[in-house]
Description:
The structure is a homodimer.
Chain A: H1 9-24, H2 31-38, H3 42-48, H4 52-74, H5 82-98, H6 106-112, H7 120-142, H8 148-169, H9 173-191, H10 195-199
The structure holds a DNA duplex.
Amino acid sequence: MTKAARKSTEEKLLLAARRLFCQAGIHATGISRILEEAGVARRSLYTHYGSKENLLKAVLDTEASMWFHWFDLELPDLKCSARERILVLFDLLGKWFEKEDFFGCIFINAVAEHEKDSGWVKDMAGAYRYQIIARLQSLVVESGAGNADMVTQKLGLIIEGAIVTAMVTQSSKAAHIARLAAEDILRCMECSPSQAEAASSATTAAMESA
Amino acid sequence: MTKAARKSTEEKLLLAARRLFCQAGIHATGISRILEEAGVARRSLYTHYGSKENLLKAVLDTEASMWFHWFDLELPDLKCSARERILVLFDLLGKWFEKEDFFGCIFINAVAEHEKDSGWVKDMAGAYRYQIIARLQSLVVESGAGNADMVTQKLGLIIEGAIVTAMVTQSSKAAHIARLAAEDILRCMECSPSQAEAASSATTAAMESA
DNA sequence: ATTAAGGTAGACTGTTCGGTCTACAGTAGA
DNA sequence: TCTACTGTAGACCGAACAGTCTACCTTAAT
């Protein structure tokens, strides 16, 4: 902390764990590999975190904090309309996808490889998602949407789709596609706030034979 | 196969493995648990599949076949417009999400917990996704879209988002939201086939500070 | 100078896992 | 009836894993 600001042991472990958990999977990543990548002794991990599970919790906590920090402090800094700030979200997604160490969202990945009926992973991911959606909704409300709740959910779904698509295809194109889709959503919201509901029931009867 | 049509050993293993891999994760599911659930002897698994990895491959193959079968044979059966068939897709998604044994898409989950730079899991998931997108695209083309490729990618992204959202939230609401979002996409496609591209560059400059 | 904190190195442990092996039972066709 | 096939039951093996322990080093405050 004096002048070189060398990474602390905790930071080194957190960074290595985050990368390996995302790149190779959580269960597939052994403690030894994390230690090797972090350049940290075995004992240090257990004095700081106590277990692999606690390390994962710390990684998820850190990830959530980073996103909330960005959402609450950095995004409001650029003074533009709420609609523009929503779209900037997708450009940020693109920058994230372009990073060489992008391997999907660790929350989604963690849920995917843990028990889905119960457990703290599911709970943490749910809480994280709730908070992200809440922040997204305040942007949507600020942009003056009538049916803000539905628009928010559509946008949230597109964001999640973009993250997973980018993970599977290993390409950042998904962010661009997502942004265009979001623009469609916002355009429909402006033109016809309640028309969407009316048009949705016409074709529902066709699904009976499936 | 005579009249009781009892499940074969392979089927029992495939079903148990599919459910457990999805519900609890692939790495977190031990061989013994699969055998217990399937009611099958340990040796039978290895005579039929040789390894856990091969069993996973078989599960993925089966899953892909089921989707392709549905897409190629059942969907064309209901004689309605291509646009309506696209929307029926989302109703089917809803029925899938409502099942008590829905725990996400096994392809997405498998990618999430395996190496993301290389490996057969990534390859299989990529091939599967490619074939699904191709079928989706033929529907979009049939519906008369000008920029069919972009519309297809938007819809594919929404489908993936719905699947992941349904997995994380353990709710089938995502299918309904996805359908409404898809209707927005299709409406924008009809009204202004090329307008979307023009409007997308206006706010791109705002992201420099991120 | 001494002490205490926090680090490294790496041997060690108990458990669990994927996978193999032996022994045996039911069944159906030659 | 013999044989071949397909299955069960479960002991067993080696490897890998998460986690513990001992011994030692460095650094900074007392």
